[in-house]
Design brief:
This protein is an alpha/beta fold and 248 residues long. It has helices at 3-10, 20-33, 52-56, 81-89, 130-140, 154-164, 167-171, 176-197, and strands spanning 18-19, 42-47, 66-70, 97-102, 105-107, 116-117, 126-127, 205-215, 222-233, 238-241. It is built from eight helices and ten strands. Strands 1, 2, 3, 4, 5, 8, 9 and 10 form an eight-stranded mixed sheet that branches. Strands 6-7 form a two-stranded antiparallel ribbon. Helix 5 (130-140) packs across helix 6. It is globular.
Length: 248
Amino acid sequence: MLKKDKLGIIRKFYPNAFTTIDTVNRVIDYVEDQLNLEPTKIMLADSICSDDVNSIQYPIRSHEFLGPFKMGGLDGFPFTGLTGMAAFASHVPDEGAVFIYYGPHIGISKEGVLGEIHRFGQKQNTGCCGAASSALGKLLNNAIEPGNITEMDYQMNTIEQILYKHREHIINAKSQLHEATEIIYQAIDKRIQELVALTHFNCRYIIIMGAVLINSDTDIGSFSSARRFDILNVKENTREDLLSLFSV
C-alpha cells in the first residue's frame, strides 16, 4: 500500500498525522539545521505505552539519538515520575539537548476501525490501546470506584481515575475511545510539564513533543499526531512553540 493511501486511512481520525518515520526525520532535520546539533548529542526519553507494538514499530532512525530512556507505563503515562525525569536529565551531553516524546496510543486497522489492529502472527484483530479500552469499558459499566488505586494494579487504576474525572464528557462524546485518548493525552501532557518544571537540566535545549501515537496493522506501520512541539532554551530561559512544523 502506498504511503498516501495509508495516511488516507489514518487522517480520517487524525487529520495532522504523519508516519512516525517522517516525524522523526522532521525532528532530526530541525535539530541539525536550526539547533546545530547532531542526534548523538541528544538524549531521547519517551513516555509511551509499554505495549510491545510500540517497540516493534519504533522508527529505526530514532536510534541515532542517545537512549531512549523509558518513562511510560500503561498508555504512556510517565509513571517513572520525578526520579525518572531527573535520572535521564543527568545523562545528557553538557552542550546537547533532551528530546522528550510522549503521549497515549490508539490503534486504527487498515479497514479503518478505531481501537484495534492486526498484530503479527494473529488471525484476529486485537485492541490497541488495551488499557484505555478496558478502562473505558469499566467507566461505561459504572465499574470504576472513585479514588481506588491499588498496589497490585496501580498503573491501570491510575488510567481509570483519569477517565473517571471526565466521565460525563466521555460518555457523551461521538467517539468515546477517541475522546478518552484525548483526555489521557491531556493528563500526560500536564504531568510532563510539571516534571520538566521541577527538574534541573544542564544541557542547552529541552525539546518537548506531545502527540497521539497511532498504531496500525503490521504491514501499515505507525503514525504520530502532534499536539505540542516546544523548544526550551535552558541558557536563555526561553520557550518557542513550533507545532506548525507538523501541520499538514
